[in-house]
Amino acid sequence: MDNNPWERAKSQLKEVATRLSLDELLISKLLSLDRVIEVLMPMKMDDGEVTVFQGFRVQHNNIRGPYKGGLRYHPNVDMNEVKALALWMTMKNAVIDVPFGGGKGGINVDPKKLSEKELENLTKEFTKKLSPVIGPNLDIPAPDVNTNSKIMEWIVEEYGKVKGHEELGVVTGKPIGKGGCQGRTEATGLGGSYALQAILKKRNIQSKDMTVAVQGFGNVGVFVAKYLHEAGFKIVALSDSKGGIYVPEGIKDIEVVEKCKRDSGYVAGCYCVGSVCDLSNREQLGGKTISSLDVLELPVDIIVPAALENSITQENADKIKAKIILEMANGPTTLKADKILSEKGVLVIPDILANSGGVAVSYFEWYQNIHNEKWTKEEVFKKLKEKMELSAEDIYKTSLEYKVSLREAAYIVALRRIEKEDKSSTN
Ligand code: NAD
């Protein structure tokens, strides 16, 4: 049960809903799923062979608005993961106060093993299968692990073909110039940086030179590292699925690491490819390579899990030395690990707050699409900052009022908003 994200998501919700004495019917609705879609997609590959891919979309709840949540392409995608991620989206969208419910989807595939054409064909086949149940006012997918703006563009193309006209609002995270929003790519990472700073301010903690280790160096990991660095934090470790680098004196330029990951294919490659990047002088930097698990156990002030679920479990929670965890990944901490961390007095900034900047800017994109508006990046970042700070403050205040963790407080804030909407729609 501890490693099953769907059981965990329900258990987190049930505990807080019961404490709030929420209406039993509403609790039951939130522990259920509105719609579960599973599709099998036989595809002809470049070599002429046929492979059958499995795809999922789960629509958890739409009390507050159309279902909204990302699409993940990963070999570990399964129904339990997608159900949990959909429920967390309902909570997250309420926490950041956007008028959406929760959904999530994905395909069980390693996209790195497909050619560009195969990836496009698979995405368009998935879109065809989902087209009766997605749409700008129904269910709006977005990028997540291993999906990006190009994939969103293919979805818009195929959805338009099926419907006979283009509907930009069917997905968010599109390329700029194809209905995308300025700043969407950076939004999740930047939002995390805003959330962390807002909570530290409330706790009167000086952030300057606090050391940070980041697990995961994809869309979220890269930008959270960049923006924390820019805000004066000292980024000492970065990692991906193949390991990472640890530079106790602080990594001076995150973009250098980004470039050498691009060149060598992995973060630890920064030390291995000779003159390709400036970080190759390990002696001078005093840095070393580390495993993707070591990164969470380093002697740092803050760890930032920004990869996948279940990276902090009862196996490693006790070994964590950081006093603060900024959960940029969805569901990185198991229930047992959460308990251990709480006993150790670790401050956990929960996923449904920390990474909600992505969906906040997705909402801005959807809003601009349906109102035919175009906002500048400055406008987007200003609105994002306001939203993140407001949510962080609400959650912080609630945690003091109820004497609970920030995670429980985030659930309380979300459930109160959902309850309010539910009451007004049934009255
Ligand atoms: P991504 O595919 O761009 O990057 C994922 C990164 O995690 C890669 O660097 C990969 O190498 C690394 N990784 C995978 N397995 C790992 C492991 N076992 N150990 C260490 N690193 C590992 O994905 P992303 O969009 O950055 O998403 C990361 C997390 O953030 C996911 O949990 C996702 O659901 C969540 N999230 C993403 C967004 C968004 O806007 N993209 C929004 C909210 C939440």
What does it look like?
It is a single chain. With 427 residues, this protein is α/β, with parallel strands linked by helices. It has 2 domains: 5-10 and 35-168, Leucine Dehydrogenase, chain A, domain 1 (Rossmann fold, 3-Layer(aba) Sandwich); 185-354, NAD(P)-binding Rossmann-like Domain (Rossmann fold), CATH 3.40.50.720. Helix content is 44%, strand content 17%. The protein has 14 helices and 12 strands. The protein has helices at 5-19, 24-30, 79-95, 116-130, 149-163, 184-202, 219-230, 254-264, 282-285, 335-343, 351-354, 357-371, 377-402, 406-426; strands at 35-44, 50-61, 67-74, 101-108, 139-143, 211-215, 234-240, 243-246, 288-290, 302-305, 324-326, 347-349. The strands form 2 sheets. A 7-stranded mixed sheet has the order 9-8-7-6-10-11-12. Strands 1-2-4-3-5 form a 5-stranded mixed sheet. A hairpin with a 2-residue loop joins strand 7 (234-240) and strand 8 (243-246). The chain is globular and about 55 Å long. 52% of the residues are buried. The mean pLDDT is 94. The structure holds nicotinamide-adenine-dinucleotide. Residues 143-146, 188, 215-221, 239-241, 292, 306-308, 328-330, 355, 358 line the site of nicotinamide-adenine-dinucleotide. The site of nicotinamide-adenine-dinucleotide (NAD) has 24 residues, from helix 7 and strand 7.
Counting helices, strands and paired strands, the structural category is: alpha/beta
Task: Give the CATH superfamily of the largest domain.
Answer: NAD(P)-binding Rossmann-like Domain
Oligomeric status:
single chain
Uncertain residue segments:
none
